[in-house]
Amino acid sequence: MNNSLFMKHLSLIFLIITFFACKKETAKPEELVTNNDPNIGCTDKFALNFKESAQTEDCSCQYDFQSTLSNVVPESFTQKVLIEEHSGTWCGWCPLSKETIEKLSQNPNIVGVEIHYNDKLTVLDEIFIPLKNVYGYPAWPSGMINRKKSVVGTTTIIGEPDWKTNADALLSKAKTSIGIAVDAKLVGNEVQVFTKTKFLNAENEGKFGIGIYLVEDQVENFPQLNYLSGMSQFKSYAAYYLPGQINDIKHYNVARGAISPIIGGFEIPEKAKKDKVIFPKLFKYNLPASVIKPENCKIVAFVMNEKNEILNVNYCNIGKHSEWN
Q1: To 5 degrees, how large is the angle CA 72–CA 58–CA 307?
Q2: How many Å apart are CA 290 and CA 93, to the nearest integer?
Q3: Which residues pair with 171 in a beta bridge?
Q4: What are the tens digits of pLDDT across the range 296-309?
Q5: Residue-wise over 248-275: b if at least 16 C-beta within 10 A, else e?
Q6: What distance in Å separates the CA atoms of residue 266 and residue 261, rounded to the nearest whole number?
Q7: How does DSSP assign 215-243, residue by residue?
Q8: What are the residue ranges spanned by the domains of the chain?
């Protein structure tokens, strides 16, 4: 066979392979995943392959959501930490905790959320009351680190001086077997959050849930009372040099809503835990009128156990995504 004829045959083979490869990658409605058992399948009404008769979720749901989140799962996941800070614009000591949480959050494996009470930034029904019903009224300022009991005491709500110690203790175990990836978009006035959750072993006992905060960063025009102003013992804090009321403060990651319940969460199906398959889920939530700058909004998604302890967390800006890590 001469070279010219050989090249023609080679080109034809390449075209045939390309044609079938493209056909395989192009999803059609009839190719949606289904289970022959009428009682098993996708139970989510948001999904394209929702099965009305299904009683047991099989983690097969597919959605009309264009996501680039990978199905290639690493051998382990990076341990991350969520700090839930109890705050208020009336709380004169809160500039101290605000500085601490922003400093700790320079570590990409730590994310903080400001939970306000008794001011105009309060989200009472979705956030403050559910937390209060489980953990009681907090002191101000205070916080919870993955909702775990303090390593230097017995309480879950702990003071700012112990935040770093507790965060470091959790991060000392650099890897974990539970991961969550997150993708978020704003479609009109609707926040759409797509998550993938994965368990790398089947040894985890009990129920697990996905909780999701909608937060807005750099929130302005809510003056903050500041007791640190001019107090010599706080010279190491920027607030020492600021007035007794900080009018131009920018509040960090203020909780604006709960896209999925932050107590209990959206229950992760047994199959995801037992059979170690990826659990995909799409959440939809109307953007609250309280949000000032949607472009400053973030999604903070986490996996919790039935004690509401946070096992891992991930976060991204709306319009962005955060892969497995």
Answers
A1: 85
A2: 25
A3: none
A4: 999 999 999 999 99
A5: ebbbbbbbbbbbbbbbbbbebbebbbee
A6: 7
A7: EESSB-S--EE-TTTT-GGGTTSGGGGS-
A8: 3-57, 77-322
Structural element, H or E, at residue 186: strand 178-187
Token pair listed for 43: 């139970």
Q: Which of 315, 306, 323 is nearest to 147 (CA)?
A: 306
| Nearest Cα to Cα of residue 101 among 89, 115, 91 | 115
Rounded to the nearest 10 degrees, the angle between the axes of helix 94-104 and helix 163-171 is 20
77-322 sits in which CATH class? mainly beta
Using CA atoms, how far apart are residues 171 and 174, in angstroms rounded to an integer? 5
**How far, in Å, CA of 245 to CA of 223, rounded?**
6
What are 13-69's pLDDT values in tens digits?
433 333 333 333 233 334 566 678 999 999 999 899 999 999 999 999 999 999 999
Name residue, tokens 């993955």.
Answer: 146
Cα 45 to Cα 32: distance, rounded to the nearest angstrom: 15
> How far apart are the C-alpha atoms of 318 and 259, rounded to whole Å?
13
Is 133 a residue whose pLDDT tops 90?
yes
How far apart are the C-alpha atoms of 198 and 181, rounded to whole Å? 9
